[in-house]
Specification:
Number of strands: 3
Number of helices: 1
Family: Belongs to the protease inhibitor I13 (potato type I serine protease inhibitor) family.
CATH superfamily: Trypsin Inhibitor V, subunit A
Structural class: alpha+beta
Strand order of the largest sheet: 1-2-3
Pfam families: potato_inhibit
Keywords: Protease inhibitor, Serine protease inhibitor
Number of domains: 1
Order of helices and strands: HEEE
Distance between the termini: 12 Å
GO molecular function, one term: serine-type endopeptidase inhibitor activity
Length: 72
């Protein structure tokens, strides 16, 4: 498994998605060949690191991205 610093030519965070709609973020991440996972603030998550997963933290209603999505 690659560490974050070993990912070959791959963006590891997506600050451009903060403030955008959750569905827009899902489309953007999917278009990059990654697996988007929508999460609410303080929602429990597994601690495993996956180079194909991007967690997208939204507002409580699930409509707006609140935090910079990152691979992991």
């Amino acid at each position: 498994m690659f560490s974050q610093s070993e990912l070959p030519n791959q963006q590891s965070s997506f600050p451009e998605l903060v403030g955008r709609s959750a569905q827009e973020a899902v489309s953007y991440i999917s278009a990059k060949g990654l697996t988007p996972v929508l999460m609410k603030p303080n929602q429990p998550a597994t601690m495993d690191y996956r180079t194909d997963r991007v967690r997208i933290v939204t507002d409580p209603s699930g409509s707006v991205v609140l935090q910079t999505p990152v691979i992991g």
